[in-house]
Amino acid sequence: MSQSTVNVSGIAPTTTETSLHDFFSFCGNIEKIDLQKADDGKQSATIHFTKHQAANTALMLNGGTLEGETLVVTSDAQHPEPSADEHHEGAPHIDQSDKPRAGIAAEYLARGYTLSDGILQRAIDIDSKQGISKRFLNYFNQFDTTAGEKALGPNQTISGKVQQTFQQAHSRAKSIDEQKGYSKVAHDYYSKAIASPWGKSVLSFYTNTSKQVTDIHSEARRIADQHKPRTAPAGSSATAPAAATPAAGSEAQPEPTTQAAPTVV
């Protein structure tokens, strides 16, 4: 069995491999899924990820709900995490599995999946213990700084200046992005989120490990507001969005740079 493999049981009889792939693709790139159905109709699956941290994120989801059924996610192997201080030469390339767990949890909620507050706290605890990866921090801060300097001037960041000159900064940052093609590298949600009235809050959420369960719910609402989900996953119910308030967060769909994982960071 691969070190990047998890076992999933408690899968609804009607859940398809596609639905299972969509759910777990938020964790990171999936190599393959082996879905088995027993004579009594119950289903289980073995999911093979390309990275250890993706498997660990999947384990975090133990107890999550998919199509009305509670999933049991386990593994027969340990999945070593990369060092938070690992260094990579050149421009940062962000895979879904590089994102903070709290951010991934917010994407799930924004898309309408049900995660208990216990799972959200688990995400926070993992981020606190593992730290935010150097690769992710470089990626996030680079966009904030580069776009800020080009749009607002030397030593300026979008998140730091936007409260004072939001409209101007947003317009100029958008123009810069169109010229330089940052959106081809940066997640659409992140770039828009930084250049917004709550840019500092977004920056803090994704770069600091100190946060609360309520912060994840708030981020989910922001993501959903930014990119309204087209449809809620079959059989799942949205816990983040309230009836009167659209869920927030980015479209939690696998990003083009990996597989179909969320486009938010």
How is this structure best described in words?
It comes from Coniophora puteana (strain RWD-64-598). Pfam families: RRM_1. This is RRM domain-containing protein. By secondary structure, this protein is α+β, with helices and mostly antiparallel strands. Among the domains are: 76 residues, Alpha-Beta Plaits; 47 residues, no CATH class. The protein is built from 10 helices and 6 strands; from the N terminus they run βαββαβββαααααααα. The strands form 2 sheets. Strands 2-3-1-6 form a 4-stranded antiparallel β-sheet, covered by helices on one side. It has a two-stranded antiparallel sheet with strand order 4-5. Strand 2 and strand 3 form a beta hairpin. The radius of gyration is 18 Å and the shape is elongated. The chain starts with a strand and ends in a 39-residue tail after the last helix.
Q: Which of globular, elongated, flat, extended, rod-shaped describes the shape?
A: elongated
- Provide the CATH topology of the domain at 1-76: Alpha-Beta Plaits
Examine the secondary-structure arrangement and name the CATH architecture of the domain at 1-76. 2-Layer Sandwich
Percent in helix: 40-55%
| CA-based gyration radius | 18 Å
Largest sheet: 4 strands, antiparallel
Poorly predicted tracts of residues: 87-91, 181-186, 234-265
CATH class of the domain at 1-76: Alpha Beta
Write the element-wise H/E pattern from the N-terminal end onward. EHEEHEEEHHHHHHHH
* Fraction in beta strands: 5-15%
Give the CATH H-level superfamily of the domain at 1-76. RRM (RNA recognition motif) domain
Give the N-terminus to C-terminus distance in angstroms.
30 Å
- Order the strands across the largest sheet as they lie in space: 2-3-1-6
The strand count comes to 6
Discrete helix count: 10
Structural class: alpha+beta
Output mean pLDDT. Answer: 75
Biased composition (Low complexity): 231-250
Biased composition (Basic and acidic residues): 78-100
Protein name: RRM domain-containing protein
Keywords: RNA-binding
